[in-house]
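Many introductory courses stop at the sequence. We go one step further.
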Amino acid sequence: MAEQHIQPKLVSMLKQEKIQLWNPPFTNTDTNEAGTAHLQELAVRYSKEVGFPLPDVEVALEDIRSQAVKRGESNKTYKETNIATLELMLPKEDNKRKHLIETKLDITTQDLIDRITGEFDLRHVMLIVKGKTLPHDKRLCELNVKNNSKIMIVKLCETELRNEMVAKEEKKRSDEESLQRTQKGFQILSERDGSEDPATTPFLEIADQKGNPIQIPPAEKKALILAMGFHEKGRALMKRKEYDMALGHLHLADEQFSKCGSALLNTVDNYAVLQLDIVWCYRALKALSCLDDGKQRLQKAEECFLKCYGEQQQRLQQIKGNTGGEEVLFLRLYLLQSLLAYLDHKNTQAVEKLRKAEDLYGHLCLDPEKMHQLMSMGFSEQDTRLGLRACRGNVDEAALHIIRRNSERNDIMQRERNKRKRRLEAIETLVEMGYSKKDAAKALHATNGDVDEAYRHLLDLYEAKKSDIQTKVDQREAVEAALRVVEGDVVQATQILLNNQGLLPPDLHSPSSPSSSSEEPSTSDSTASGSSSLDADLVNEVLEDIPRHEEDYLDVTLEEESELIAVLKSYLEKMLTSST
């Protein structure tokens, strides 16, 4: 990791000291050659500060300097001629991997591939920018390729090319379909207002930290359900280490959260947890280009935790009676802050945050014997882990905590079952009066469950609908009759109806007018049935990724956290040793 991050770390140090390697004394402005003595002096100083070998620092600084010089030249060229300079990273076996190529950006990827294969004696290649393969049929400017973009060239044999293209297309199709199905499934759930049959239709409630439903305005509730849905899908993918796909879902969740009011986001910790998860994905994907975004997201997360939990987590203590479970969130926060501080050459801050993380890690690591003791009582592994952390390792308190939380959860579920049972009975009462289940459920929702009010509501709707239908039937029959009278002349039929307020005069009526009942049967019922079946499949699919336990997001094994702590310790210790 240290070798991989040497250039970003040196760039950060140069920025802090406001050193511009492309200017004197590090670069001769007449020849663009390096000022060797000054560059050597800087390399010696930086090598001691960061603990990297002097030759590596020298090479990295010269690379940064020459890139900056070339970037300046290419920027000037691009402004004057609209010709971009691209940096090509050729296959590893090439003696000189980096090459610059000048081109317009309105050409297709295939055009650039043809030029590269011709100039560098390559056959089958694909182009990758920022981890994404460039489609052959699109223009570079459409794919966010810009002046000074770095393009990786990957060489493929014919079989690999064929297999790679097929696999990429299949994965792209699968990923897009998965994303669309997830969006559609949660869209359906977000639009449900509780008016459907409670016995057969899943319905999501927004709940607090204890699982109690909370009331939210409809518009915000829809956005929040979509946000939480995408977040849960993203977390499920993170657990499977599919970080690239997870990140796409997490960004969609972030878009939906932005539609919620700040008052709501300040009362729930979901938004803060999402920011942590996004930066955790950046870490897993080694997305160094996202470092600045990561800093902003961690700041948002910290501010949101402060508002949700209170400065000393007193608000969380009042709500849940403990704060131990949420410490895993702060563990990740401190670790990510330490990592970003290290990469930004803020070594003191990096050490401070790592110490905080190590302290929390020590509290959160659980004694296997205590785990076994509680699990032998019949508690699940998840409940045991969460209980011990909530009670800071006290077995007796953890057992009581788990029992109490399970009891609270069962009470909430029982109240919800009773509520749904009462609604189902009310629906059946209205169905017995001749109304459909769907109309009955909607009427009950509109009247807050009052059966008498729902019945009057349905009567009013029925009369209004009956009148509307009769008007439409009368209008259609008038049009059909007018067209028959004038033997299909649309202009004459329209004029007759306009002159008679949309009606056909009695003297023009034909006694043999066919009844509207002779129309062909509607297929709307079968279409609706098919659509309903598809909706049910989509909903069931997305519900699989919603954890049954309300504190699932706090249940982590600490494996990844342990690895990151070890890595950060080794680099910071190396840095501190070299600076003494």
